[in-house]
Amino acid sequence: MRMITGLSLMTLLLATPVVAQEAQGTFIDLNGAEAGTVSLTQDGDSVAISGHVMGLEPGEHGIHFHTTGDCDSAAKFESAGGHFNPTEHQHGLENPEGTHAGDLPNATFDADGMAMLDLSTDTISLTEGEDGYVFDEDGTALIIHADPDDQMTDPSGNSGDRLVCAVLEAPAAE
C-alpha cells in the first residue's frame, strides 16, 4: 500500500508542472546607461523584490511601480506614467485611505551611491488574473526617485524627479 501511495504521489508531482512566476528588469539612468538590475519572484500572495542600483545620492529615495513598461530616458521616464494604482487608492504606505499597489518602502543608498534591494509586497502580482497583475497590455516599470517618499502625500509622496527606471519583463518561455 505504501508503494502505491508513494508512486501515486510521485506521478502527481511529476504530472503537475511548477511554473515559476518571475520578472526581471535592468535599471537605466537619465543618460540611458545601465544602473543596476531587479528581480521579482511570486511567493504565494507576496512578491519578493531583489536587486541592486548604483549611481544615486546617498540616503533614502522613493521607489514605486509605474503604470507603463516604458523607460524613455530622453523623456525623463515620464513615459512610465503615474504610479501603478489599479485599485484607485490614495498614495502612501501610511495613508489611512489605502495605498497604491505600486507603493514601496524607500530604498536606502549608501555613501558610495549603491542600494541593495530586498523588499516584498502583497499589492502586486505576477500571476495572471490576480489583482495587481503587472503584465497587462502595456507592462509596468519600477522607478527610483530623487527624494524620499513621505508615504502620505497623494499622488507621489513628494518623492521628486525620476532618476532610474526598469521595465519589468517576464522570462522567456523555454
From TrEMBL:
SUPFAM superfamilies: Cu,Zn superoxide dismutase-like. CDD domains: Cu-Zn_Superoxide_Dismutase. Pfam families: Sod_Cu. Keywords: Signal. The keyword Ligase does not apply. Gene3D superfamilies: Superoxide dismutase, copper/zinc binding domain. Residues 1-20 form the signal peptide. Residues 36-167 form the Superoxide dismutase copper/zinc binding domain. PANTHER family: SUPEROXIDE DISMUTASE CU-ZN -RELATED (PTHR10003). Belongs to the Cu-Zn superoxide dismutase family. This is Superoxide dismutase family protein. The lineage of its organism: Bacteria, Pseudomonadati, Pseudomonadota, Alphaproteobacteria, Hyphomicrobiales.
